[in-house]
User: What shape does this take?
Amino acid sequence: MKHALMVLLVAVASIGWHAAHGGEAVPLAENELTEKRLIAISSELRCLVCQNESLAGSHAELANDLRREIRTLINQGKSDSEIMDFMVSRYGDFVRYRPPLKGTTLLLWFGPALLFFVGLAALVRYLRRRDRVLQDAPLTAEEQRQADALLHPQDSRQGRS
Assistant: This one.
């Protein structure tokens, strides 16, 4: 038992020492300007795996590959717009956080509002129909008695005694 406890303590101490003395982080690019451009471009692109996260903030393997590809294009001397065009040609307008307004992206821009108004219209229509049905069909005498008994339980008990 003491031996197992000693091994556990040594393992924990070793992990703590490695975490504290892990070494310096190696920069991802030799050029700081390249890294800044990479972050600016990748923050405008959507991670295709996460979909609600930017390419700059994602830790998915595909995001790492795409950032590596963008870094390569930057080092080849491509402009920001050329890199963006390359990504759009490869993955479509969905890869952009702010896709351009054109015929194929109208649903991306106006779809949520359209769904909201369709849902609101359906709700209003349902409530109006339900209200009409309730007004057109009054309670029978038996249903009225049951409703009164539920609403006023003491009155119905006093009537029975």
Q: What stands out?
A: Helices lie at 2-20, 32-43, 61-75, 80-91, 106-136, 141-151, 153-160. Residues 17-27 have pLDDT under 50 and may be disordered. The CA atoms of residues 93 and 99 lie 6 Å apart.
